[in-house]
């Protein structure tokens, strides 16, 4: 059996908005917490797919940029110092005397309860066929920090919203941005396409990246094939492969939880069919479910307060008002 690296009251599986808010709430309820995520950064779908987009339907914020919301959630949870186990997928779940054991990458976490906030599952970026060896050495799927690409010639590959979002976000920091798409039509919202066009970003279609060249210092240029086998070379230190993601609940589907359409069935306390395992956020299913950040926050609070009672039957379900705590 894998060595236990952490022992906590609550293990949260998924560091998206729901898991991060649950980490705050569990700390507020006096629990020790670990948060595991397969991705190297917290923030779930927000960080992976739309960190630069404005969000308009989070309570209390008329508008908030995705990355700022995630930073605020991390700060809020940080008051109680949860242990983050990032870049590690949660794989196996087993019962151990009076608790649960979850394998996370090369270690294992023993917890009194598990809250699954795994969203739509683990994301796997759709690969850029010519990008193989260059992933992490010039080819990226996520951009956690725009400044890293400052002064670069950037080629964005893709025709959906995220390709155009990245073109917009990178334009102020990059030396040049060019968008390459294999079709002449874009899936992205026409308003977004116009914004990028207005900035003068060249949109090259139909075209595919067929070769990448560089040396040990990194990527220098890409060769694209235009219709009719015509080729062109573009300078590029960064290629953003914005070809979308596949998402998969993967190992969690084998945890013996009742599922419905790749989501976990819960009752009104957010409890699953397995004792001490709860679910909240996009991954949780019940009649009338609406998958939004706002609903995930409410479900996180419901789950954690019910977990507090499950772990300690003398605890109150109602946590008291945070405004009364100094
Ligand atoms: C382009 C786009 C725009 C959106 N705009 C809005 C909006 O304006 N307003 C709004 O309310 N919602 C919006 N949403 C939806 C919103 O992002 C989701 O509802 C929200 O992210 C759900 O949060 P979550 O924490 O439940 O799950 P997620 O954000 O999906 O996070 C789940 C996390 O769990 C991790 N994970 C999964 N499986 C494992 C495992 N086995 N081990 C370890 N980690 C695992 C994943 O890596 C991920 O980080 C948008 C979504 C998209 C794609």
From TrEMBL:
Residues 9-294 form the FAD/NAD(P)-binding domain. It catalyses: 2 reduced [2Fe-2S]-[ferredoxin] + NADP(+) + H(+) = 2 oxidized [2Fe-2S]-[ferredoxin] + NADPH; [thioredoxin]-dithiol + NADP(+) = [thioredoxin]-disulfide + NADPH + H(+). This is Ferredoxin--NADP reductase. Homodimer. It holds the Pfam family Pyr_redox_2. Signal peptide: none annotated. GO terms for molecular function: ferredoxin-NADP+ reductase activity; flavin adenine dinucleotide binding; NADP binding; thioredoxin-disulfide reductase (NADPH) activity. Its EC number is 1.18.1.2. InterPro entries: FAD/NAD-bd_sf (IPR036188), FAD/NAD-binding_dom (IPR023753), Fd--NADP_Rdtase_type_2 (IPR022890), Ferredoxin-NADP_redctase_2 (IPR050097). Keywords: FAD, Flavoprotein, NADP, Oxidoreductase. FAD binds at residues 18, 37, 45, 50, 90, 123, 282, 323. Belongs to the ferredoxin--NADP reductase type 2 family. Binds 1 FAD per subunit.
